[in-house]
From TrEMBL:
Segments passing through the bilayer: none
GO MF annotation list: sugar-phosphatase activity
Entry's EC annotation: 3.1.3.23
Alphabetical list of PANTHER family matching this protein: FRUCTOSE-1-PHOSPHATE PHOSPHATASE (PTHR43481), GLYCEROL-1-PHOSPHATE PHOSPHOHYDROLASE 1-RELATED (PTHR43481:SF4)
Superkingdom assignment: Bacteria
Organism listed in the record: Sphingomonas melonis
This protein's UniProt keywords: Hydrolase
Gene3D superfamilies given in the database record: HAD superfamily/HAD-like (3.40.50.1000), Putative phosphatase, domain 2 (1.10.150.240)
Protein name: Sugar-phosphatase
Length: 234
């Protein structure tokens, strides 16, 4: 069943210097591809696939491998990444994401992902999401989410303070990283079957929403109202 668009946009009237977007589960859905690669790996290495799938979302592959206690985390992470790059079947954009992003100036938003750059480029290309000038990937930081380093770096590369940014995320690890960076957080729930369990404002997807751009900042607005305003005679 299609979820209704929220009656009022999240953070109504609040202006932000920039938007920082996670990728998987936030701008695109890649569950089919990721689950296939991780399930195959788990079966080959003798791990319980259900357990592996329960801990791998929202964090860097190298950190999942370290948590699982494999002997060579780097090699195993590289194996997973190769599989995911080769298989982008089922990777699609979250509904409304492309149109929402199209309304934001390129110097006012970034993608901050736990994926490698090669994987991010493959998935974004498959989903039809434009790659922004600022793309922070797993290679850019020593510690992944929930450490705030990735969001701090994304904000810095945009030339703004993280405390003036809104982070779009679909995992608790990512939202915790946003909090630790001093940013505001917005949960995206399109790929979730169960409540995320966070006090952050949440939306299912980007349908019905748009961005109002002003020198003072970016504001999430109702897309229909914004269209009516633009169409009104001067």
């Amino acid at each position: 069943m299609t979820a209704p668009v929220p009656a009022t946009p999240p953070y109504r009237g609040r202006r932000f210097a920039a938007f920082l977007f996670d990728m998987d589960g936030t701008l695109i859905t890649s569950i089919e591809s990721a689950n296939c690669a991780w399930t195959r790996w788990a079966e080959l290495r003798g791990f319980d696939p259900a357990h592996v799938l329960s801990i791998m979302h929202g964090v860097r592959t190298i950190e999942t491998m370290t948590r699982l206690g494999v002997s060579d985390p780097q090699a195993e992470a590289a194996w997973i990444t190769r599989q995911e790059i080769e298989d982008t079947e089922g990777v699609t954009a979250i509904e409304g994401a492309a149109a929402f992003l199209a309304g934001i100036p390129q110097d006012r938003w970034a993608i901050v992902t736990s994926a490698s750059r090669a994987l991010a480029e493959a998935r974004l290309g498959k989903a039809g999401i434009a790659i922004p000038p600022v793309l922070v990937t797993s290679e850019d930081v020593e510690r992944g989410k929930p450490d705030p380093a990735c969001f701090l770096l994304g904000a810095d590369r945009l030339g703004v303070d993280a405390s003036h940014c809104l982070v779009f995320e679909d995992t608790l690890a990512g939202l915790s990283a946003a909090d630790a960076a001093g940013a505001s957080g917005l949960a995206i729930t399109a790929t979730h079957r169960h409540p995320l369990g966070t006090a952050h404002p949440a939306i299912r997807d980007y349908r019905g929403l748009a961005v109002a751009v002003a020198p003072e900042g970016l504001t999430i607005v109702d897309a229909a109202a914004a269209h009516d305003k633009d169409a009104a005679p001067a």
